[in-house]
Amino acid sequence: MSERARAVGGFAIVAVLLVAVGFGRSWSVSLAVFNLCLISAVMSLGVNIQWGYAGLFNAGVMAFAALGGLAGVLVSRPPVWAAVAAGGGGLLWAAVAACLTLALVRVAFRRLPPGRWRLLGVTAAVVAGFFATRAFFDPAVEAIEAVDPSTSGYLGGLGLPIVLSWAVGGVFAAAVAWVVGRVALGLRSDYLAIATLGISEIVIAVLKNEDWLARGVKNVTGLDRPVPYELDLQQAVWFRDLVAALNAGRLSALDAAERAAALHGLAIEAAGIFVKLCYAGLFAAVLLVVLLLSERALRSPWGRMMRAIRDNEAAAEALGKDVVRRHRQVFVLGSAVVGIAGAMLVTLDGQFTPSAYNPLRFTFLIWVMVIVGGSGNNLGAVLGGFVIWFVWIEAEPAGLWLVGALTSAMAPDDPVRAYLVASAAHMRPILMGTILLLVMRFSPRGMVPETVRR
Amino acid sequence: MSYLAGEDMRGGYGAADILRGCAIAVDRGEIAVIVGPNGAGKSTAMRALFGMLRLRRGRVLLDGRDIGRLTPRERVRAGMAFVPQTDNVFTTMTVQENLEMGAFLRRDDISESMEEIFGLFPVLREKRRQQAGTLSGGQRQQAAIGRALMTRPSVLMLDEPTAGVSPIVMDELFDRLLEIRRMGIAILMVEQNARRALAIADRGFVLVNGGNRFTDTGHALLANPEVGRAFLGG
Amino acid sequence: MIVDVANALVLLCNFVVVPAIAYGSQLALGALGITLVFGVLRFANFSHGDLMALGTMVTILATWQLRRWGVGAGPLPTALLALPFGALVAVVASLAVDRSVFRFYRVRRSGPVVLTVVSVGVMFVMNGVVRFVIGPDDRSFADGARYLMTAGEFKRMTGLDEGLAIRSSQVLTVFVAVASVATLFWFLQRTRMGKSMRAYADNEDLALLSGVDPDRVVLVTWTITAVLATVAGTLYGLDKSFQPFTYLQLLLPMFAAAIVGGIGQPLGAIAGGFLVAFSEVAITYAYKKFLRYLLPEHLHPDGLVQLLSTDYKFSVSFAILVAVLLWRPTGLFRGRVL
User: Fold this and answer.
1) A123 and A95, same structural domain?
2) I need a labelling partner for B4 at 20 to 30 A (CA). Which of B66, B172, C3, C63 fits?
């Protein structure tokens, strides 16, 4: 089957499944799944840029998604001026001290002869700089976190529209990726995996603990929205008129009093769907842009070179390609895309909860998407994002249903049954792992394989 | 019939054959040398004899038995030993451990063989507690040959044993090979230093494009003006 | 004066040295497994943490069963008796996984990163199995004598203000770790099989040319790795508590320990384990009280004097990892350059 046919077939199946959920459960649920499918697809594209184009194993996808989420907070929340006044200056000084420390370390590393003196010099610079930074940092943080701790206790953001944070999230992720790449690229590929695993744990730890930044585990809720609120819609005249027009047939059969109540109910339902559709439109637009850009990049001379490097690093190096530099580019680009998706996710949720980030859901699940979809093929990565998200989200109800069906013969208070029902949720990782292993083994090129271009 | 013989060997790694009907043979108590230009398939021929390359056609006989289906490990068991050109010692293990690893398949007392090898290469006795990775190039080759001999092989195959060692060490190594030959072992090697190698060879094979261009005794090949002009640098 | 110094040292021992020794032993055992797989099978095994969790889980289940039967080990934790069951299941599981998953890629000589990705799949499955069987919650399974010496006993014995408590799980950890490591080294250095494993890790092709059977080497490697993982996981669980998710998080410090020590270098993995553990504990300890004993009153610190909050302990492993990658990619004990 050709690439196109496989992709079309795959998307058709996903569409049928989503429509089935729409009719079977509700359109609201179906759209909620669809929105997350779109975001997953963007993330999957980002990882595909790294793994599919260049064979880089990024085990810290979660961190880049979380950085995108952080951008959501920092861009959209209004600034907390009291906190800025209390601790902004101190933070600034701490930042200056940190930069000076880094410069000092750099100088020590460059100027001192290798060996004991360099080690001593660098260590001394690190220790001195650490304490100097902390001297400014600690009081500033204390002051900031003391400002109205139950509702803010952080610096707030810039008060800009949250859609801007999608780009900013990409920049945040790219910046961190650049630093990681400096260290870990150019070593054997599994070192990058380990280094990114480390960075992801650290990023999440920072987000959980630095309350001054984004309130840590106290979470930031009620984020600004790029789309209308349901309540406003329900009361908007034009929206009620629209709902009335769409349901004219059904409503006309009712008398006036009943009609008003029915219209109210319909408006509530329609408002939810309308909001989700707005999100879907925005996300789909981003997905399309990222997909088109990725495709163009892949077909450009740059993309050809990336694949050449991936397939034979030694030969590419012998031809004078700067492999490490190319890898860094790809790593930064892919991470930026993940960051964008992370910001989109926080926008959809309307809140930023650092403790929600765990590696199984935010790193390895994305990996499954890419590999199942087809490493190296952008359309495949998108399809993988759709399919795997659908499976992931439906695995739990399906598992519960299955357990329920299997144990229906048992007494309702049977402990074994209760145990099985409670444990059904843990079937998810087993299912995902099995899918990953089966695809790697029997169809390593995925649902939509990379097309070999000559 | 020679002790080890590869007949009409054809095959390669990809679609194109590297070996195109080449024939190699060596008897016990003989030294056979394969020479030829780069890319002629010298090392490939060795690998084919050792079962590290699947042949498309032809056969390999050891003592009259067709061993074409045996894995390299089984060929070791059957009495063949191979010294690769590079990475031919266990660098993180001591010299003694390297020799012990050579005798991995043996269940009998190996101290006698060890003594024999220390007799052949006295420097190994001196350095037996040292890690093989710290040895000099020549000592490393000796350790590698020693490891191969610990299997008590009837055939010893060497891939460019003198690559990267000084001329003095090379002479020394060739002397040792002559001694090993006297033990009744068949020695087959690929050599870059063709002139020196052919001088001690009982048989020589000049490979070109995966086939035998010349096959004769070492001295005859050295005396052959055509061989001299084309392959031995005048 | 001298009493103050003694108090300060006891304080440091109690909160830094003793816990770090125990934690270091646990990390070292885990890192040994990682370095063996790295050295022999040549890939970073992401499923190692969950293999630990699996072995520990079975040990816990066996412990519960033994207690139900009224079997105990006196002052020692019952888990010690249950350990062989956990190890056995872990060995069987890793051999089954190798047979059904890893072997395919080994035979095809796939690149290390492919194997690493595959190990992520294995990690998923093992993680799910553990959570399915025992649930995601905290499980405590320590029993037997809790303390070898309580802080109070120590104070009475020495007359110092500070106490030194030594938990039996800590002593047990050190003992079991030393015994396991000694056995492992004896095996690697002295036995035929152990030497062939080292040879295979050193130079696969040459090992084959010497007649080493790769399947045997792989089998033994997984067996040792699984046993070490179970021992490490059980000791960690006894010392702290068992929670499936923490074992996934132990991956990072264990990888750091293995790389710091030098890949494929068992001795390095042990040194690396202790280095990571001591750095982690020392950097996240609050030195306020310690300094109060040592400094004159007007210099007493106001803050906690804690370099990093405990939540950042992973950054310690990471910093060590980065420093090693930058300065000495072969690690302290000159492992393989990757």
Assistant:
1) yes
2) B172
